[in-house]
Amino acid sequence: MTVERWGIQVGGTVEHISMWLLAIILFFVSFKMSGKSLKITMMINRVLYILIIVTGAMLLFSISNINGEYIGKAVIGLWVIVSMEMTAVKRSKGKPYKSFLIQFWISFVLVLLLGFRLPLGIQLFG
Ligand code: HEM
User: Fold this and answer.
1) How large is the C-alpha radius of gyration of the chain?
2) Is the CB of 111 inside a 6 Å radius of any atom of ligand 1?
3) What domain of life does the native source organism fall in (predicted)?
4) Is the Cβ–Cβ distance between 126 and 117 less than 8 Å?
5) Ligand 1 center from residue 35 Cα (angstroms)
6) Is the dihedral of CA 19, 77, 79, 83 positive or negative?
7) How far out from the chain centre does Cα 73 lie?
8) Is 115 touching ligand 1 by the criterion CB < 6 Å?
9) What is the pLDDT of residues 30-70, one digit of tens each?
10) Reduced to 3 DSSP states, what percent helix, strand and coil does the chain have, rounded to the nearest 5?
């Protein structure tokens, strides 16, 4: 599902999936990093977080009747982003981050189940 904005096709699940895949990969890569390189990866990932939210919001606005499941999908999607950001921030400061990493795994599994259940794009469950 794509929409046309300024003459280009944007807002499909392909763009959304590409953005969060990149962010998740970069999030894992950042565990190998520290100091300045960690800061740079975190900056790049923040740009990706915005793009995830923008592509997700475009999907949301392309739907004519938004139900609770879509709201839940968006909220859990935001939870994934917050837990990734918090994990990276805590780790960069040398503080405990395990609770945020656990939240990341829980929210990530939930968002995949819900995302691939909802009708747009790829539908694996339900
Ligand atoms: C890292 C965070 C996120 C992940 C891992 C994620 C994952 C996914 C997945 C797997 C799908 C299904 C794609 C498909 O069926 O082709 C999806 C669709 C969607 N996402 Fe996200 N998402 C995230 C963040 C967000 C955010 C922040 C929003 C809202 C602002 C959002 C809104 C949506 C909407 C509306 C859909 C369409 C649902 C449907 O398939 O019918 N997502 N997302």
Assistant:
1) 15
2) yes
3) Bacteria
4) yes
5) 32
6) negative
7) 11
8) yes
9) 999 999 999 999 999 999 999 999 999 999 998 888 899 99
10) 70, 5, 25
- Which of 54, 73, 86, 110, when mutated, tests ligand 1's pocket best, judged by the most ligand atoms within 8 Å of its CB? 73
Ligand 1 pocket, residue 20 CB under 6 Å = yes
Tokens describing residue 126:
């339900």
For the CA atoms of 26, 44, 46, 10, the dihedral, rounded to the nearest 10 degrees, stands at -90
pTM: 0.91
pLDDT band, residue 125 (cuts 50/70/90): confident
pLDDT at 126 over 80: no
With a CB cutoff of 8 Å and minimum separation 6, the contacts of 81 are 23, 49, 52, 53
Helix (H, G, I), strand (E, B) or coil at 9: strand
